[in-house]
Fold each of these.
Amino acid sequence: MTQQASGQGWFVEVTDQALDIAKYTQLVTDPAAGAISSFIGTTRNNFQGKSVLRLEYEAYVPMAVAKLKELCQQLHSKWDVTHVAMAHRTGVVEVCEASVIIAVSSAHRKASLEATHWAIDELKATVPIWKKEFFQDGSMWKENEESRRLLQQQQDGQRQQQQQQ
């Protein structure tokens, strides 16, 4: 399943299909842009000394697309960029395959480089996409920063209720 959205200067997509950097680079190519910066997050074959077999992503797709759109709009307001494209995979992502691609164009390299760095950090922290890592000796869900923050808020609320009793 693929869901995408686009507007003036931005494109976002959450898909269970393979990601192709050429597609997203083409989406941000512009005659006024002297720089295109990209980030491609791929599945590596190890994590903390364990052999990784594959990753599996799940997402609340409508909210993930909306959050990616919001990140593009924030990025446009923070940096002088021309175009932004962000895409994230769902489902099984094998070793060496791309899980996420971010491409940003701008007149000069500094804006696109900084914007790309900010975008991947914000995406990982706030977009409702969850990763399950499969190792030779089992598997585990890996929470993102937003999940941790929501869990912490829930736990804090429960503590406050207990203290009030």
Amino acid sequence: MLRSCAARLRPLLVAHGRPGGARLTVRDRGSESTFSFEEVTQKDHALPKPSWSKDLRLLFDQFMKKCEDGSWERLPSYSRHSVQRFQNFTKAFFSGSIPVKEEQISQAKFFPRSFEDGLGFEYAMFWSKDEKRIVCLFQGGLYLQGIPGFLHGGALVTLIDTTLGMHAMLAGGAVMTANLSINFKRPMPLCSVGVINTQLDKIEGRKLFVSCNIQSVDEKTVYTEGTGLFIKLEPGKTLV
């Protein structure tokens, strides 16, 4: 099944950051898009919770072990953007009026983190700079059902977009999704644990091509395959 999003670019400055209580922030410096780190006091949702299954916790512990020698890095994940981050983003990529008011931003939540624990997605991403790939460990909660007993395809696309977009952002800076092509191979059981593996296929100017698949924990089943095209944003060139 093919789902193309080329008709409308969607912002993908995702609510993730770096370890140590800092979050990635876009700033405008001349013609380049740069990032700084701002301290955050929000809850890091990419850490084990009581709602995590035994399989998800086991995989998480295995990757945390890989982080000890510096070859892998866990990517924190937050549910909200700060007002400061919103201001930095609008300053860099909007001119004139902006689509959302600052008081609304303080109430808004990052979509994949908008459900109560155990009802939506539980996930943690790990990044290997040397291998140039992200591994996202996840389980889909009860509010993500499609056909009875299985995850909704649109929910899986959301997590694919989030994971591929994070990879593109780490590789190229601030990006937006231009196109997603999704091939559903098999339905994925509700509340089961899956693994997303990403790879950067190529870069052409401001275009970043990233692909992934979703596998079962034992790697015997491929549930979904996806490719994405992301466009690197340029400060000074307004989005609207």
Amino acid sequence: MFRGFNLLRWSQDLGTDMTRTMTTQLLFLLAWGGAVWAARPKTELLNVCMDATHHKEKPSPEDKLHEQCSPWKKNACCSVNTSQEAHKDVSYLYRFNWDHCGPMEPTCKRHFIQDTCLYECSPNLGPWIQQVDQSWRKERILNVPLCREDCESWWEDCRTSYTCKSNWHKGWNWTSGFNQCPVKAACRPFNFYFPTPAALCNEIWSHSYEVSNYSRGSGRCIQMWFNPEQGNPNEEVARFYAEAMNGAVLCGAWPLLLGLTLMLLLLLG
């Protein structure tokens, strides 16, 4: 009887020891995994293309990008065909009609062409790419810090053009195959729907952009316009924000690692 009791006691102790050992190993594994994850480089945020309708899988040179898209020819997420379509009215890209309230002023339209080129071609938007569940794309950009001067000139050049909506991402009438103003939506000058530069840049594409307080050349905001002969300034901007995000992840991981360490000490004690 005592031999059976001792055998049972031995089995229980063995089970407890095995459980403790397995728990300790699991916690060590979690701690190691957390440290590796927190310290991983943010290379996936740099030199990447969105998973969207017309983007290439990876950026690469495109020597013949069309006109306003040509600044990205050394390294682009768009094809030559996409760059050509970006300059057309009601192109096959999105069937979007810039002239939904009458002809848009050419000085205004060039900003929308440049906006399209930046969106389709830039490999430097990684820090602001977010996953979405939409039929036409799996990723979007959110709150890209657009340089203050680029936003202001966009707004100034479009003040005399007309539109009928403040959010161009949704709410259109698409029955004709391209966007038309919704019923009872009045066409008015841009500054009616966008009273400030920030209203235009922040709201027109559902906060794809967020106007920055930083200026062009600061290395802290994305430039819609740049001289490719002087290099692409947005590479430095993307690197800065990717490194900042990496630092934030490290700081956020320390409470987890500290908690795991305390649990280990309790178990081993």
